[in-house]
């Protein structure tokens, strides 16, 4: 027999013959089985038809689909470019107060709060019970 | 004069459209998942012999594939034929790694002995499914008793009906080595099945 693959040993040649047979068998084409031992041919036919195929349960398949969807929602696509305006858009005037306003409001509340506390300490209401208590405590403390 | 620039890549990957859609928007990964989840799970069952372990490995494989998708490079060539899918090969390689990692964990912290499962005919959940068909059970047990590399090659060839070239890419072997693995595995399986007859 002439070697089909230069340098290939007998085992490799036999493996190549079997490979060609399997190619035809799995493609459901007629194959030349003359060169194959009967047991190998029977074994190949048994494996091609008898080996079971396993399918995941519907519950698992749907669970993993949901898990993958969650994973895609958590992470932005790799290499994604986040849009950043190169110039101030026309609607910037509408956006600006939201951003700056929150800062001003925060600062204004802080300033107003400090002023109110200072004024309240210097102008306690004489009628309020709490104010009387505060004054009584303040008098007992050493200056 | 025509310049040569190495092997030319042809747009032959049958999953190209799905892969590009998933790259543009990871939410579009689902069609690829639906297409291959059964095959990855099936591969995991043959390697791990346990449906729950197979689910775990399948989950890890798809999460890893989703994370690595931006790094996937299509490489189908004209020689691979019109049904070539380098994405499928790439996904199976990831699945194989996930399965191998799970096997290592099970060996370090054995809950059930994989070797015992492979060597004894005592029914597992998987075998309980196959027992409905005596021939299927015999084929399953014969394949399960093969050494790892032969079993993987035989399963990829007969169950997933992958080409020798695809199996070689998944296992990281030459095509010649894969042919020999399948041939030796087949001879051993044939001998075992012959003894049963």
How would you sum up this structure in a few lines?
The complex is a heterodimer of chains A (143) and B (197). Chain A is mostly helical.
Distance between the termini of chain B: 65 Å
Strand content of chain B: under 5%
Structural class of chain B: mainly alpha
Multimer state: heterodimer
CATH class of the largest domain in chain B: Mainly Alpha
Q: Helix tally of chain A?
A: 5
Extract low-pLDDT stretches of chain B. 1-11, 113-123
Q: Specify the biggest β-sheet of chain B.
A: none
Helical element count of chain B?
Answer: 10
Chain-averaged pLDDT of chain B: 81
List segments of chain A where confidence is low: pLDDT < 50 over at least 5 consecutive residues. 1-5, 82-108
H/E element string of chain A? HHHHH
Whole-angstrom Rg of chain A:
42 Å
Q: Can you describe what's shown?
A:
Residues 1-5 and 82-108 of chain A have low confidence and may be disordered. In chain A, 63% of the residues lie in helices and 0% in strands. Chain A has 143 residues and is mostly helical. Chain A has helices at residues 10-26, 38-50, 58-74, 92-122, 129-140. Chain B is mostly helical. Chain B has two domains: 9-120, RNA polymerase sigma factor, region 2, helix turn helix motif (Rna Polymerase Sigma Factor, Chain: A, Orthogonal Bundle); 121-197, Arc Repressor Mutant, subunit A, CATH 1.10.10.10. Helices cover 68% and strands 0% of the residues of chain B. In chain B, helix 3 (51-68) crosses helix 4 (86-108), helix 7 packs across helix 10 (175-196) and helix 9 (164-171) crosses helix 10 (175-196). The longest helix of chain B has 23 residues, at 86-108. Mean pLDDT of chain B is 81; it is low at 1-11 and 113-123. Chains A and B meet through helix 1, helix 2 and helix 3 of A and helix 2, helix 3, helix 6, helix 7 and helix 8 of B.
């Amino acid at each position: 027999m002439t070697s089909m693959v230069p340098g290939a040993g007998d085992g490799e040649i036999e493996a190549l013959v079997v490979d060609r047979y399997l190619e035809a068998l799995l493609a459901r084409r007629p194959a030349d089985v003359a060169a194959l031992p009967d047991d190998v041919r029977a074994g190949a036919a048994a494996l091609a038809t008898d080996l079971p195929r396993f399918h995941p349960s519907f519950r698992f398949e749907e669970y993993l689909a949901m898990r993958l969807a969650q994973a895609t929602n958590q992470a932005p696509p790799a290499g994604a470019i986040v849009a950043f305006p190169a110039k101030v858009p026309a609607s910037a005037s509408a956006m600006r107060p939201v951003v700056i306003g929150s800062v001003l409001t925060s600062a204004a509340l802080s300033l107003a709060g400090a002023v109110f506390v200072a004024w309240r300490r210097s102008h306690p209401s004489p009628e309020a019970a709490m104010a009387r208590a505060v004054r009584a405590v303040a008098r007992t403390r050493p200056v | 004069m025509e310049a040569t620039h190495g092997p030319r890549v042809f747009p032959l990957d049958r999953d190209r459209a799905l892969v590009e859609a998933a790259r543009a928007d990871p939410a579009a990964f689902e069609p690829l998942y639906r297409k291959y989840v059964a095959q990855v799970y099936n591969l995991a069952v043959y390697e791990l012999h346990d449906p729950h372990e197979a689910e775990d490995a399948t989950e890890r494989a798809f999460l890893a594939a989703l994370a690595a998708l931006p790094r996937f490079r299509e490489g189908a060539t004209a020689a691979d034929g019109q049904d070539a899918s380098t994405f499928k090969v790439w996904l199976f390689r990831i699945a194989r790694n996930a399965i191998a990692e799970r096997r290592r964990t099970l060996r370090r912290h054995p809950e059930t002995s994989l070797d015992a499962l492979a060597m004894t005919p005592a029914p597992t959940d998987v075998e309980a499914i196959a027992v409905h068909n005596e021939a299927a059970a015999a084929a399953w047990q014969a394949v399960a008793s093969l050494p790892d590399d032969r079993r993987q090659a035989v399963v990829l060839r007969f169950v997933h009906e992958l080409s020798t070239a695809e199996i070689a890419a998944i296992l990281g072997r030459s095509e010649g080595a894969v042919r020999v693995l399948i041939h030796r595995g087949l001879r051993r399986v044939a001998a075992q099945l012959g003894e049963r007859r």
